[in-house]
Amino acid sequence: MPLPVVCKGLPRAHNRTNRRFCVIPLLVHTLFVLPRSCRCFSIGLMTAEYVRGRSELARMYRRNIVRYCELAQVLVFRDISMRTRRRFPTLDTVVAAGFMMPHEKDRFDEIQYRYSKYWVPFQWALALSYDARKKGLIESDYYQVVVQEEIKKFRTGLAWICNYDWVPIPIMYPQLVCLAVHTYFIVCLLARQYIVSDSANNKTEVDLYFPIMSTLQFIFYMGWMKVAEAMLNPFGEDDDDFECNALIDRNITVGSTTNMLLFVNKQNVSH
Predict the structure, then answer these.
(1) Matching InterPro entries, A to Z (predicted)?
(2) What is the dihedral of CA 98, 101, 106, 107, to 10 degrees?
(3) Nearest Cα to 246, choosing from 8, 19, 81?
(4) Is the pLDDT of residue 9 over 90?
(5) What is the pTM assigned to this prediction?
Protein backbone atom coordinates (compact mmCIF):
# COMPACT_ATOMS: atom_id res chain seq x y z
CA MET A 1 0.00 0.00 0.00
CA PRO A 2 2.66 2.68 0.80
CA LEU A 3 4.62 2.01 -2.40
CA PRO A 4 1.97 3.53 -4.74
CA VAL A 5 1.45 6.41 -2.30
CA VAL A 6 5.16 7.24 -2.08
CA CYS A 7 5.78 6.67 -5.79
CA LYS A 8 3.01 9.13 -6.66
CA GLY A 9 4.07 11.68 -4.07
CA LEU A 10 7.73 11.88 -5.14
CA PRO A 11 7.09 12.65 -8.86
CA ARG A 12 4.41 15.13 -7.86
CA ALA A 13 6.83 17.06 -5.63
CA HIS A 14 9.63 16.77 -8.20
CA ASN A 15 7.49 18.01 -11.09
CA ARG A 16 6.23 20.92 -9.04
CA THR A 17 9.79 21.90 -8.06
CA ASN A 18 10.96 21.52 -11.66
CA ARG A 19 8.17 23.76 -12.94
CA ARG A 20 9.05 26.38 -10.34
CA PHE A 21 12.65 26.36 -11.51
CA CYS A 22 11.63 26.64 -15.16
CA VAL A 23 9.55 29.78 -14.62
CA ILE A 24 12.16 31.69 -12.57
CA PRO A 25 12.89 34.71 -14.80
CA LEU A 26 16.44 35.69 -15.70
CA LEU A 27 17.36 39.05 -17.17
CA VAL A 28 19.70 37.31 -19.60
CA HIS A 29 19.72 33.59 -20.28
CA THR A 30 23.19 32.14 -20.70
CA LEU A 31 23.83 28.94 -22.61
CA PHE A 32 22.00 26.64 -20.23
CA VAL A 33 20.50 23.41 -21.50
CA LEU A 34 16.86 23.83 -20.51
CA PRO A 35 13.84 21.57 -20.91
CA ARG A 36 11.28 22.53 -23.51
CA SER A 37 8.86 23.49 -20.76
CA CYS A 38 11.24 26.19 -19.49
CA ARG A 39 10.70 29.78 -20.50
CA CYS A 40 13.54 31.82 -22.01
CA PHE A 41 13.82 35.42 -20.87
CA SER A 42 15.95 38.01 -22.65
CA ILE A 43 14.81 41.37 -21.32
CA GLY A 44 18.43 42.40 -20.67
CA LEU A 45 19.55 41.58 -24.22
CA MET A 46 16.48 43.05 -25.90
CA THR A 47 16.75 46.28 -23.92
CA ALA A 48 20.45 46.60 -24.72
CA GLU A 49 19.80 45.93 -28.40
CA TYR A 50 16.71 48.01 -29.11
CA VAL A 51 17.05 50.99 -26.74
CA ARG A 52 19.94 52.48 -28.68
CA GLY A 53 22.26 55.39 -28.17
CA ARG A 54 25.51 56.30 -26.48
CA SER A 55 24.13 59.28 -24.59
CA GLU A 56 23.64 59.33 -20.85
CA LEU A 57 19.88 59.49 -21.43
CA ALA A 58 19.91 56.25 -23.45
CA ARG A 59 22.03 54.50 -20.83
CA MET A 60 19.65 55.69 -18.12
CA TYR A 61 16.65 54.25 -19.96
CA ARG A 62 18.34 50.89 -20.51
CA ARG A 63 19.57 50.71 -16.93
CA ASN A 64 16.23 51.65 -15.39
CA ILE A 65 14.15 49.25 -17.49
CA VAL A 66 16.38 46.38 -16.36
CA ARG A 67 16.44 47.66 -12.78
CA TYR A 68 12.65 47.88 -12.56
CA CYS A 69 12.29 44.27 -13.71
CA GLU A 70 14.83 43.16 -11.13
CA LEU A 71 13.10 45.28 -8.47
CA ALA A 72 9.88 43.35 -9.09
CA GLN A 73 11.78 40.08 -8.67
CA VAL A 74 13.26 41.29 -5.37
CA LEU A 75 9.78 42.22 -4.11
CA VAL A 76 8.43 38.78 -5.03
CA PHE A 77 11.37 36.88 -3.54
CA ARG A 78 11.05 38.86 -0.30
CA ASP A 79 7.61 37.31 0.20
CA ILE A 80 8.44 33.70 -0.72
CA SER A 81 12.06 33.21 0.39
CA MET A 82 13.24 33.58 3.98
CA ARG A 83 16.81 34.14 2.82
CA THR A 84 15.78 37.11 0.69
CA ARG A 85 13.50 38.40 3.45
CA ARG A 86 16.44 38.42 5.87
CA ARG A 87 18.57 40.21 3.31
CA PHE A 88 15.86 42.79 2.57
CA PRO A 89 13.68 42.98 5.69
CA THR A 90 12.24 46.39 4.73
CA LEU A 91 11.88 48.55 1.65
CA ASP A 92 14.56 50.83 3.09
CA THR A 93 17.09 48.01 2.68
CA VAL A 94 15.94 47.58 -0.92
CA VAL A 95 16.61 51.30 -1.44
CA ALA A 96 20.01 51.00 0.24
CA ALA A 97 20.92 48.14 -2.11
CA GLY A 98 20.19 50.33 -5.13
CA PHE A 99 17.21 48.44 -6.53
CA MET A 100 14.87 51.35 -5.74
CA MET A 101 15.44 55.09 -5.52
CA PRO A 102 14.13 57.10 -2.52
CA HIS A 103 11.65 59.04 -4.65
CA GLU A 104 10.44 55.76 -6.18
CA LYS A 105 9.84 54.38 -2.71
CA ASP A 106 7.70 57.42 -1.92
CA ARG A 107 5.64 56.83 -5.05
CA PHE A 108 5.43 53.13 -4.21
CA ASP A 109 4.19 53.88 -0.68
CA GLU A 110 1.51 56.20 -2.01
CA ILE A 111 -0.36 53.17 -3.32
CA GLN A 112 -2.24 52.05 -0.22
CA TYR A 113 -4.22 48.83 -0.25
CA ARG A 114 -3.88 45.39 1.29
CA TYR A 115 -2.90 43.54 -1.88
CA SER A 116 0.54 43.01 -3.36
CA LYS A 117 2.11 45.74 -5.48
CA TYR A 118 4.44 43.67 -7.63
CA TRP A 119 2.93 45.20 -10.77
CA VAL A 120 4.18 48.73 -10.01
CA PRO A 121 7.81 48.25 -11.22
CA PHE A 122 6.53 46.61 -14.40
CA GLN A 123 4.25 49.58 -15.00
CA TRP A 124 7.27 51.85 -14.63
CA ALA A 125 9.32 49.71 -17.05
CA LEU A 126 6.54 49.68 -19.67
CA ALA A 127 6.11 53.44 -19.32
CA LEU A 128 9.86 53.92 -19.84
CA SER A 129 9.80 51.82 -23.01
CA TYR A 130 6.95 53.94 -24.36
CA ASP A 131 8.77 57.14 -23.46
CA ALA A 132 11.97 55.84 -25.08
CA ARG A 133 10.03 55.25 -28.30
CA LYS A 134 8.65 58.79 -28.23
CA LYS A 135 12.17 60.21 -27.80
CA GLY A 136 13.54 58.14 -30.67
CA LEU A 137 15.74 55.87 -28.56
CA ILE A 138 13.73 52.91 -29.87
CA GLU A 139 13.75 53.14 -33.65
CA SER A 140 10.43 51.50 -34.52
CA ASP A 141 7.14 50.38 -33.05
CA TYR A 142 8.14 46.77 -33.68
CA TYR A 143 11.23 47.13 -31.49
CA GLN A 144 9.10 48.72 -28.79
CA VAL A 145 6.71 45.75 -28.91
CA VAL A 146 9.64 43.32 -28.62
CA VAL A 147 10.93 45.07 -25.49
CA GLN A 148 7.46 45.23 -23.95
CA GLU A 149 6.82 41.55 -24.70
CA GLU A 150 10.03 40.63 -22.88
CA ILE A 151 8.91 42.71 -19.91
CA LYS A 152 5.57 40.89 -19.93
CA LYS A 153 7.31 37.49 -20.16
CA PHE A 154 9.44 38.41 -17.16
CA ARG A 155 6.30 39.44 -15.29
CA THR A 156 4.52 36.20 -16.27
CA GLY A 157 7.37 34.11 -14.85
CA LEU A 158 7.11 35.90 -11.51
CA ALA A 159 3.32 35.51 -11.61
CA TRP A 160 3.69 31.73 -11.94
CA ILE A 161 6.07 31.66 -8.96
CA CYS A 162 3.51 33.60 -6.91
CA ASN A 163 0.77 31.19 -7.98
CA TYR A 164 2.78 28.15 -6.88
CA ASP A 165 3.49 29.82 -3.54
CA TRP A 166 -0.14 30.90 -3.15
CA VAL A 167 -1.61 27.45 -3.87
CA PRO A 168 0.70 24.83 -2.31
CA ILE A 169 0.14 21.10 -2.23
CA PRO A 170 -2.75 20.46 0.20
CA ILE A 171 -1.36 19.85 3.67
CA MET A 172 -3.47 16.71 3.94
CA TYR A 173 -1.53 15.03 1.13
CA PRO A 174 1.94 14.96 2.77
CA GLN A 175 0.29 14.11 6.09
CA LEU A 176 -1.49 11.18 4.45
CA VAL A 177 1.74 9.91 2.90
CA CYS A 178 3.57 10.22 6.23
CA LEU A 179 0.75 8.45 8.09
CA ALA A 180 0.52 5.66 5.50
CA VAL A 181 4.24 4.92 5.55
CA HIS A 182 4.55 4.94 9.34
CA THR A 183 1.39 2.87 9.80
CA TYR A 184 2.63 0.36 7.23
CA PHE A 185 5.86 -0.26 9.14
CA ILE A 186 4.09 -0.45 12.49
CA VAL A 187 1.92 -3.21 11.03
CA CYS A 188 4.99 -4.88 9.50
CA LEU A 189 6.67 -4.87 12.90
CA LEU A 190 3.98 -7.24 14.17
CA ALA A 191 2.78 -9.03 11.04
CA ARG A 192 6.21 -10.13 9.83
CA GLN A 193 7.32 -11.78 13.06
CA TYR A 194 7.87 -15.51 12.97
CA ILE A 195 5.75 -17.83 15.07
CA VAL A 196 8.07 -20.14 16.96
CA SER A 197 6.04 -23.30 17.45
CA ASP A 198 6.04 -26.92 16.40
CA SER A 199 2.70 -26.38 14.67
CA ALA A 200 3.82 -23.23 12.78
CA ASN A 201 3.43 -23.34 9.03
CA ASN A 202 6.79 -21.63 8.48
CA LYS A 203 9.46 -23.29 10.59
CA THR A 204 12.48 -21.84 8.77
CA GLU A 205 14.98 -19.83 10.81
CA VAL A 206 16.32 -17.86 7.83
CA ASP A 207 15.84 -14.12 8.32
CA LEU A 208 14.64 -14.83 11.84
CA TYR A 209 17.02 -12.56 13.74
CA PHE A 210 17.40 -9.72 11.21
CA PRO A 211 14.55 -8.73 8.82
CA ILE A 212 16.55 -7.97 5.69
CA MET A 213 13.68 -7.18 3.30
CA SER A 214 11.78 -5.13 5.86
CA THR A 215 14.92 -3.11 6.56
CA LEU A 216 15.47 -2.42 2.86
CA GLN A 217 11.84 -1.38 2.49
CA PHE A 218 12.13 0.95 5.47
CA ILE A 219 15.26 2.62 4.05
CA PHE A 220 13.78 3.11 0.58
CA TYR A 221 10.27 4.17 1.60
CA MET A 222 11.39 6.54 4.32
CA GLY A 223 14.13 7.92 2.07
CA TRP A 224 11.67 8.62 -0.75
CA MET A 225 9.28 10.26 1.66
CA LYS A 226 12.01 12.52 3.08
CA VAL A 227 13.10 13.50 -0.43
CA ALA A 228 9.52 14.45 -1.31
CA GLU A 229 9.22 16.49 1.90
CA ALA A 230 12.47 18.33 1.12
CA MET A 231 11.17 19.33 -2.33
CA LEU A 232 7.85 20.70 -1.10
CA ASN A 233 9.38 24.16 -0.54
CA PRO A 234 12.33 24.82 -2.88
CA PHE A 235 12.47 28.44 -1.71
CA GLY A 236 13.34 27.42 1.84
CA GLU A 237 16.64 27.50 3.71
CA ASP A 238 17.97 24.00 3.07
CA ASP A 239 21.31 23.54 1.34
CA ASP A 240 19.66 22.20 -1.82
CA ASP A 241 16.99 24.91 -2.10
CA PHE A 242 17.05 27.66 -4.71
CA GLU A 243 19.68 30.34 -4.09
CA CYS A 244 17.45 33.37 -4.52
CA ASN A 245 20.02 35.89 -3.29
CA ALA A 246 22.65 34.59 -5.68
CA LEU A 247 20.10 34.74 -8.49
CA ILE A 248 19.30 38.38 -7.68
CA ASP A 249 23.01 39.28 -7.68
CA ARG A 250 23.56 37.41 -10.93
CA ASN A 251 20.61 39.08 -12.64
CA ILE A 252 21.54 42.65 -11.77
CA THR A 253 25.23 42.07 -12.61
CA VAL A 254 24.60 40.44 -15.99
CA GLY A 255 21.84 42.92 -16.83
CA SER A 256 24.14 45.86 -16.11
CA THR A 257 27.00 44.30 -18.05
CA THR A 258 24.92 43.78 -21.19
CA ASN A 259 24.05 47.48 -21.18
CA MET A 260 27.68 48.51 -20.70
CA LEU A 261 28.97 46.30 -23.54
CA LEU A 262 26.26 47.24 -26.00
CA PHE A 263 28.13 48.83 -28.86
CA VAL A 264 31.21 47.56 -30.66
CA ASN A 265 33.44 50.05 -32.42
CA LYS A 266 33.26 49.67 -36.17
CA GLN A 267 37.04 49.86 -36.31
CA ASN A 268 37.23 46.64 -34.28
CA VAL A 269 34.90 44.72 -36.56
CA SER A 270 36.84 42.70 -39.10
CA HIS A 271 35.30 42.32 -42.55
Answers:
(1) Bestrophin (IPR000615), Bestrophin-like (IPR021134)
(2) -110
(3) 81
(4) no
(5) 0.77
